[in-house]
Amino acid sequence: MHELSICQAIVAEVERIARQHEAAAVSSITLRIGPLSGVETVQLEQAYPLAVAGTVLAGARLVIDSVPVRVRCRVCRQETAAAPNRMVCARCGDWRTELVSGDELLLASVELDRAGAPLQ
Amino acid sequence: MCETCGCGLTGVESHAHQRLAPVHRHEHENLMVLTRLLAHNDEAARHNRSHLDEHGVLAINIMSAPGSGKTSLLEATVQRLRQQYRICVIEGDLATDNDARRIRAQGVPAVQINTGNACHLDASMVHRALHEIRLADVDLLFIENVGNLVCPASFDLGQHRNVVLLSVTEGDDKPEKYPVMFRAADLVLIAKTDLLAHITEFSIERAERSLRSIASAAPAMGVSCRSGQGIDAWCEWLQAEHHALSQRRPTSELSRPHHDEQPTQIEAEAR
Question: B28 and A101 in contact by Cβ < 8 A?
């Protein structure tokens, strides 16, 4: 259950960005999360409203883009889909694969709400 | 949707666009960021690692489920290596300093971190603990993480290597059940091998197969603190790692757990 720590990291980063861009509020944020990041998106979604209450993120929509696990075989060089608990090459079956995607834990984008900013 | 900027707001009076004006004001701005969510922790971990490297301290992060034998392994390791290396231990537990006291009883310093309800150590906790240690007087630093096969895997502490214990009472399919943790391992120690005679369900060969099925190249080594089986090989691994680190100094190339050395494409962009 470290999803709350992750949410706190999100709040800190988004508050920094909002300050930097002089935004009054944030209307949505998009995360990019792979299953091998160790973060459960369902738990993250549950922890999120608690963590953002009273922050610049209060009321902001949380969008999570799930990233699939993909591996590239070091033997046959083929890139294939994989699962977190089965990462062998889907083509030749060799276990010596490298991760192409699936362990991302990223803040991809932030939609800033500039309502109230003076018209130019 | 607003046809001028496509921002999804309708009928809001303040949402004004000056048609054909060279600059029109966006109420909403979608900012591409691509920051690692644990960037703050990663930064603290880099700071720890550079302190450790500066003093030639090899830092080993030891992780496992609760009760797999992390502290017993450290007791046996200290007994074996304390003549050769200056050893220090950071102990992570939710509560009590029982483990730190066990380590101190072996004649080496130990710093206890109590995490309260937190399920893992993070880099800033380790940073605070490092301030209680004279790194110039240390060769080997063990960080015993909170007993947990899930959360500790996500937090870089600044260590050089990750060692994951899997005791034979836990089942040989653990790597597939906890792929994030076991993929982070540079070495897997199959602990309590003295019990293998009684726990016939556990096969070291199957545990290794489970490890390969998650594409981990980490060697698996059996150890028993009771019988002493495998402790020599484990200590030789530590000696080789310490030697490798001392050879790398004083270059600026920092050693990290293998797992973190190859960022995925998106991660690479984010760094």
Answer: no
